[in-house]
């Protein structure tokens, strides 16, 4: 039986693009026919849920009943991949909670797969976050994300200092989310649909929409680059190796 | 069967090589057959095509995303109306960068839009580089070299503009004598209007139009062959 996989997307700083990455991840897994569910911890209204309402539930990650709703159902849920979009400031808290409920031990015993997408902001404070997070990452796949979607420049960072932090975590990967044309970004927000729906010119109800071809082109190009980054770190192999093997067998 | 919508992009990375003259003639080639045609003048700050053919031409700018949307959203419309784009050298790099970023070719294939680039050749090294750039970056885009015989010694540099797999060999635009050229360059001069009024089919300009329009007809045939070739391969 396939092992459940949990992907945490978080940062302690706000406005660094966590939900953007979560949305791109959901699109990626759905495009690869990997059953996926998501939890949006921006309770009560949620942000991720606005774009992926069918697979997303809004939860309060700090409440025990909601923690049960997520982690007690990992094996029984139809979806084998669970993406959790952690609200700003709660990454460290969530990791501590996961340790306390024995989740990290389960990852250590290879009963489940645990992956953390840590979204970095431009300030030096992001490097301190890596330091704080490192202690929980012994048995997790750790992916540091430099998110340029908002035209961020990582101006504060001295490469040597960054590498000092980066190397603290064994098998850490780094991916880059490129900048998306501002007007395209804005139009997808207004449309409140997944990126793939926007590219396919579909509205939220599945009906044909009338989005600009130019803006759809920018989104398609950008999403292709983001997915190429996921491919580069072999994300599917990390979270759903049995699907990767099936795909390889089919190709053979 | 639905016909594909042709989009002719007349360009060069160099100024003053005859792009607007070709764009004017091509636009009038369609209008002279009473076919609908839409032309776009992408020469920021120095609109030219629109000065000659205001009834058929829209000024276009690709300096920002709104301008890109206004132009490319129309170029990809599958309405069977031929499009003619007079793309100035200042916007050459930008236009093809956007075209690549939005994956124009993929959408064109999906929508039965058939783009073709007519590239005005000249001896400058930058012209060779521009041609090579378009050919390398868009291997599926029909690219046709255009030799304007008004540019001296064009045979010396024709090797810089080899035929392409999708576009085929070069076409030639005959030189016009300075006097005729000055007439043609007058505002509101119309090739079609001239042809309908003249009784002298041996005149230089009439002969020039005959050769140029014949070359345009050949380009249409190339696009048509590109359209049916996959079907022929499929049925073989």
For CATH, the homologous superfamily of chain B is named as P-loop containing nucleotide triphosphate hydrolases
CATH class membership of chain A? Alpha Beta
How does CATH name the architecture of chain B? 3-Layer(aba) Sandwich
Computed structural class of chain B: alpha/beta
The topology string of helices and strands of chain B comes to EHEHEHEHHEHEEHHH
* Number of E-state strands of chain B: 7
Order of helices and strands of chain A: EHEHEHEHHEHEHEHHHHH
Rg of chain B: 17 Å
Tally of distinct domains of chain A? 1
Poorly predicted residue ranges of chain A: none
Calculate the terminal CA-CA distance of chain A, rounded to whole Å: 23 Å
Q: What fraction of the residues of chain A are assigned to beta strands by DSSP?
A: 15-25%
Regarding CATH, which class of chain B?
Alpha Beta
Biggest sheet: strand arrangement of chain A: 3-2-4-1-5-6-7
Mean pLDDT of chain A: 87
Chain pair with largest interface: A-B, 13 and 13 residues
User: What's the Cα radius of gyration of chain A?
Assistant: 18 Å
Which class of secondary structure composition applies to the elements of chain A? alpha/beta
What does this structure look like?
The complex is a heterodimer of chains A (252) and B (236). Chain A is an alpha/beta fold. Chain A has one domain (5-251): P-loop containing nucleotide triphosphate hydrolases (Rossmann fold, 3-Layer(aba) Sandwich), CATH 3.40.50. Chain A contains twelve helices and seven strands. The longest helix of chain A has 20 residues, at 213-232. Chain B has 236 residues and is α/β, with parallel strands linked by helices. Chain B has a single domain (5-235), classed as P-loop containing nucleotide triphosphate hydrolases (Rossmann fold). Chain B is built from nine helices and seven strands. A seven-stranded parallel β-sheet of chain B has the order 3-2-4-1-5-6-7, sandwiched between helices. The model of chain B has no long low-confidence stretch (mean pLDDT 92).
């Amino acid at each position: 039986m396939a092992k459940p996989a949990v992907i945490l997307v978080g940062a302690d700083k706000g406005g660094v693009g966590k939900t953007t990455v979560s949305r791109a991840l959901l699109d990626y897994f759905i495009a690869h026919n990997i059953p996926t569910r998501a939890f949006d911890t921006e309770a009560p209204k949620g942000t991720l849920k606005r774009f992926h309402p069918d697979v997303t539930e809004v939860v309060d990650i700090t409440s025990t009943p909601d923690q049960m709703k997520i982690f007690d159902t990992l094996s029984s849920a139809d979806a084998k991949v669970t993406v959790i979009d952690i609200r700003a400031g709660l990454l460290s808290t969530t990791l501590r909670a996961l340790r306390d409920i024995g989740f990290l031990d389960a990852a250590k015993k290879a009963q489940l797969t645990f992956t953390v997408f840590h979204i970095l902001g431009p300030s030096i404070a992001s490097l301190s976050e890596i330091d704080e997070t490192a202690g929980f990452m012994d048995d997790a796949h750790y992916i540091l994300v430099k998110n340029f979607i908002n035209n961020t420049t990582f101006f504060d960072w001295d490469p040597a200092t960054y590498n000092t932090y980066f190397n603290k975590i064994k098998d850490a990967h780094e991916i880059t989310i490129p900048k998306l044309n501002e007007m395209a970004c804005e139009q997808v927000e207004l449309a409140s649909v997944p990126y793939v729906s926007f590219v396919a010119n579909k509205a939220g109800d599945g009906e044909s929409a009338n989005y600009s071809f130019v803006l759809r082109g920018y989104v398609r190009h950008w999403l292709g680059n983001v997915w190429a980054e996921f491919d580069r770190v072999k994300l599917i192999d990390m979270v759903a190796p049995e699907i990767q093997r099936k795909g390889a067998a089919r190709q053979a | 069967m639905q016909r594909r919508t042709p989009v002719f992009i007349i360009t060069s990375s160099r100024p003053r090589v005859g792009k607007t003259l070709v764009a004017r003639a091509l636009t009038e080639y369609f209008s002279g057959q009473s076919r609908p045609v839409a032309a776009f003048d992408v020469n920021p700050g120095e609109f030219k095509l629109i000065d000659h053919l205001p009834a058929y031409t829209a000024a276009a700018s690709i300096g920002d995303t709104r301008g890109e949307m206004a132009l490319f959203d129309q170029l990809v419309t599958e309405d069977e109306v031929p499009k003619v784009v007079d793309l100035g050298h200042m916007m050459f790099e930008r236009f093809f960068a956007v075209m690549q970023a939005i994956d124009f070719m993929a959408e064109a294939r999906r929508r039965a839009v058939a783009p073709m680039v007519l590239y005005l050749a000249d001896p400058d090294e930058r012209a060779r580089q521009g041609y090579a750039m378009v050919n390398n970056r868009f291997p599926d885009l029909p690219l046709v070299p255009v030799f304007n015989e008004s540019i001296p010694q064009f045979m010396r540099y024709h090797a810089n503009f080899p035929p392409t797999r999708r576009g085929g060999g070069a076409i030639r635009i005959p030189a016009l004598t300075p006097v005729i050229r000055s007439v043609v360059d007058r505002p509101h001069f119309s090739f079609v209007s001239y042809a309908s009024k003249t009784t002298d089919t041996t005149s230089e300009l009439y002969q020039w139009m005959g050769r140029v329009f014949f070359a345009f007809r050949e380009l249409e045939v190339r696009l048509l062959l590109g359209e049916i070739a996959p079907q022929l391969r499929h049925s073989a």
